[in-house]
Write a structure and sequence with these properties.
mainly alpha
Length: 229
C-alpha cells in the first residue's frame, strides 16, 4: 500500500477525531455527567485516540528548546527521557484543554472539530514550507512526498466548508465563527513559524508540538471570543 502524500489529509483525520470527541461529549451530556468530569474524560479520550503521539512531540520539543545552546537542541529532543520542561508542558497543555472545554458554553462540537482540524492544517503547512532537520524518520518521509503548492488546499477547503455550513445553520454564531476561522489559521501558521525560527527548521517532534499548541491556543481563543461576542 502506498502512503506517499498522505500527510495532506491530516486535517481530515483531525476532523474525524473531533467528530468522535463531539459524539462522546454528547453521550456524556445525555447521561447527565457533571461538566468537570465530562471535560476530564474528553481530554483523556483525546489523548487515547492520538496515542499521545503529538503530546510526546510537544514534550520533546519543550525539553530541546529549554537548552540555550542551539546546537544541542536536536540531540536533547532525540533523548527518549522526558525532562522537567517537557513534563510541565504536558501539564499545561492538558490542563488548559480541560479548563477551556469546561468554559465553552455553546458550540462545543464545533470547537472540537475546529481545534483538531486547524492544528493539523498547521502541521501540513509546516511540512510543506520549512526544511526538515533529520535524514530519516516519519517526518522525513512526509517531507519527501510533500507537494507545497497544493497540500494545504485540502484541509483549508474542508475547514472553510465546515465553517460555512455551520454559519448557515447557526447564523447567530457568525461573528464567533469568523473569529475562530481567522484565529485558527493565524495560530496554526504562527506556531509553525515560531518553532522553525527556534530550530531553523522542523522535526517530527515539532510537527506534534504544532498540533498540540494550536489545539490548545485555539480553544483558549474560542473561549475568549465567546465572552466578547
Amino acid at each position: 500500500m502506498q502512503f506517499e502524500g498522505i500527510a495532506r489529509y491530516a486535517p481530515l483525520v483531525g476532523l474525524g477525531i473531533g467528530a468522535l470527541l463531539a459524539g462522546a461529549d454528547a453521550l456524556l451530556a445525555a447521561i447527565a455527567l457533571p461538566m468537570a468530569t465530562r471535560c476530564g474524560l474528553l481530554v483523556a479520550l483525546w489523548l487515547l485516540i492520538t496515542g499521545g503521539l503529538h503530546l510526546d512531540g510537544a514534550m520533546d520539543t519543550a525539553d530541546g528548546l529549554a537548552v540555550p545552546d542551539r546546537n544541542r537542541r536536536l540531540a536533547v529532543m532525540a533523548d527518549s527521557h522526558s525532562g522537567a520542561f517537557g513534563v510541565m508542558t504536558a501539564i499545561v497543555l492538558l490542563g488548559l484543554k480541560g479548563v477551556c472545554l469546561f468554559d465553552l458554553e455553546a458550540m462545543r462540537w464545533f470547537a472540537l472539530l475546529a481545534a483538531t482540524g486547524w492544528s493539523r492544517w498547521g502541521q501540513v503547512v509546516a511540512i510543506a514550507r520549512y526544511p526538515y532537520l533529520k535524514r530519516d524518520g516519519k517526518g522525513a518521509f512526509h517531507k519527501a512526498h510533500a507537494q507545497p503548492q497544493t497540500d494545504w488546499l485540502v484541509g483549508l477547503t474542508a475547514l472553510l466548508g465546515l465553517t460555512g455550513v455551520t454559519g448557515w445553520l447557526y447564523p447567530e454564531q457568525g461573528p464567533w465563527l469568523v473569529g475562530t476561522v481567522l484565529g485558527g489559521e493565524t495560530i496554526a501558521l504562527l506556531t509553525g513559524a515560531w518553532f522553525s525560527g527556534q530550530l531553523r527548521g522542523q522535526t517530527g517532534d515539532t510537527y506534534g508540538a504544532i498540533v498540540e499548541w494550536t489545539e490548545t491556543l485555539l480553544l483558549c481563543l474560542m473561549v475568549g471570543l465567546q465572552g466578547l461576542l
